[in-house]
Amino acid sequence: MGTVHGTELRVLREDEWDRWYDTLYRGFGAGPAPAEERELARAVTEFDRSLAVWDGAALVGTAGAFSFRMTVPGGAAVRAAGVTMVSVAATHRRRGVLTSMMRRQLDDVRALGEPVAVLTASEPAIYGRFGYGAATFRLSAEIDTNRVTLALPAGTEEVRLRYVAPADVLDACEAVYAALVPRRPGMLARQPHWERDALVDPESERDGASPLQCVVAERDGEITGYVRFRTKGQWSPSGADGTVQVKDMAGLDPVTEAALWRFLFGIDLMTTVSVGSRPVDDAWRHLVSDTRRCRPRLRDDAYVRLVDVGAALSARTYQAPVDVVFEVEDDFCPWNAGRWRLTGDPKGASCERTTDAADLALSVRELGSAYLGGMTLLSLASAGRVRELRPGALTEASVAFGSPVAPWLPHGF
User: Fold this and answer.
1) E-strand spans in 171-280?
2) E strands, 252-385, where?
3) Cα(104)–Cα(50) distance, rounded to whole angstroms?
4) Model confidence pLDDT, tens digit, residues 293-303
5) Could you confirm whether 68 is annotated as catalytic?
6) Known catalytic residue at 413
7) Active-site entry in 127, 177, 303, 371
8) DSSP state of 252
9) pLDDT single digits (tens) 382-413
């Protein structure tokens, strides 16, 4: 329970959910949610982690969190709060509503012992003041399959592909996803009910495209990959000009992934493959003959906030030996502020309070950006956001914080 400028902040009750969700949708400028999306949203809502702000009888603010486990460099999983469903009514902007929800939420996350919070931002400028830093990026592309060819690895032709109803192979596809989670920082393990998100396919959101389709890849009788997609037929004066809209794709090995890309490129009457969220080091960039005709675009995706600096930095490993003292600034969560000594290597790490002289100075936002290994401390320093206090400390720490694969968040929430 809390108050700010005459409003009341409290945990959501189950009988208030419909009104809460409608308020959220209005805040995002959207109409009524499709029934199947609404049903799933209610099923995954954690009511004890959902906040509502009231001004008398008016519901004017919403915020929620999901209990996830997120892969960090080294392959371990750290408990992470998935911040979500944040909105403030247009009538109550700039009255401290958002700040009050972020304050309560981060206090709760700390009390639950979750070292990290993560979110995807509708507006990137909002969350930096609460200590969130851009930590992963996603790659999208519009690939011209009339002009772009693929150079495929040996063995691709031996992969068996078959069409299946998406619901019929949901468990097998989830097993593929689960096997990939420890391989890449930023990936989230599925919680109960979240597997259904892959099947949500309201007609109102297809924009004239087909219902969701699925093709699975098999090697030695086992499903080793899948792609879920829609097709949108179009015609130009010169003939067929359709688009394959890829929703999600996963493969356990390079040959499986290449076979799925070959399939997408070969669908009749389609001249474009559209992919909306892939890792920045995705394999297709090295399979295609001409990346320029793929029209790649990079966009910020996951924002990470270290709620407990010591626990978070101790939970991951480091590419090279590191022994560095950080002077951390954190006005919003002052328990993080001060000096921390990080010692670590590829086998493990510890991060403890210290009174030793600082080697690097930065805010918790920069630590969040660098945490998964996708943003280097050197690049942040080049923008004046990290200060080197001991010569050589910046390069040492920047190399250690890296990841051999780019972090990625394919799990929307």
Assistant:
1) 213-219, 222-232, 235-236, 239-240, 242-251, 270-278
2) 270-278, 297-300, 302-306, 322-329, 338-345, 348-353, 360-363
3) 11
4) 999 999 999 99
5) no
6) yes
7) 127
8) S
9) 999 999 999 999 999 999 999 999 999 999 89
